Amino acid sequence: MDEGDWLAERFQEHRTRLRAVAYRMLGSLSEADDAVQDAWLRLSRVDTSGVDNLGGWLTTLVARGCLDRLRARASRREQPLGVHLPDPIISSQDQIDPEQQALLAEGVGLALLVVLETLTPAERLAFVLHDTFAVPFDQIAPIVGCSPAAARQLASRARRRVKGAATVPDADLAHQRAVVDAFLAAARDGDFTALLGVLDPEVVLRADRGAVPLGTSRVVRGARAVADGALTFARLGRFARPALVNGAAGVVARAPDGRPLSVVGFTITGGKIVEIDVIADPERLHHLDLAVLDT
Q1: For the structural domain made of 3-82+111-164, what CATH number should be given?
Q2: Could you state, in order of their start, the residue ranges of all structural domains in the chain?
Q3: What is the pLDDT of residue 62?
Q4: Residues in contact with 294: Cβ distance below 8 Å, sequence separation at least 6, in sequence order
């Protein structure tokens, strides 16, 4: 085996973990893949004979790339209306393949990723690397450009934000599915009372630009407001197919010609829907891996 093949084999051993780091950092599957590919290109061009911990070295590379992307995203103010929906991971309702399971480890649901989007780039990096991947603060500090004590403070601030805002979903997938089915049936039947029965009073609905008319708010709060807009889901209910969206009950709706219309993730706590995330932008849907639902 020549050195190039040996390096490629070693890199492959770490790829799944590196992609998981990048996905939590960026909330984007395509950007995560780009960050991992950049790390491979760097690895293939430098002398690593002095690297004792290749996994740690690669994690640092990926983290730096992700931090640069987050800072560029923030400087461009890509989300002027204050909401960004991360890329969902779609699985069949029967199983999640091992690679998807690695991405979803530690309960990386859409609700958590939405909260991570509210952190500063440095806070997000410190929190993800330390709390999820157990990277020591003395290794995080040089990436961010601060002292280990300051890196600890960044993670602590992020942790408080996450604990205060992230919603912990019910663990029973069968119960989640029953709640989602009841919501779709009520929307399809135009049953306002039944809709209120499955929605938490403080439910939040978030939608990307493709899911709402131009000029319409992409965040709707409160059970009555969400129920008022349930006619949108009446059509969804006719074409929806059950799926797992980041490991939780959700649906993927397709047009009769097979074209994807939307991906909807639900966060259910205490038997009530507390968050709904709708992705309907055709360009984003085009880049999601929905083939798993066709098997």
Answers
A1: 1.20.140.160
A2: 3-82+111-164, 173-294
A3: 97
A4: none
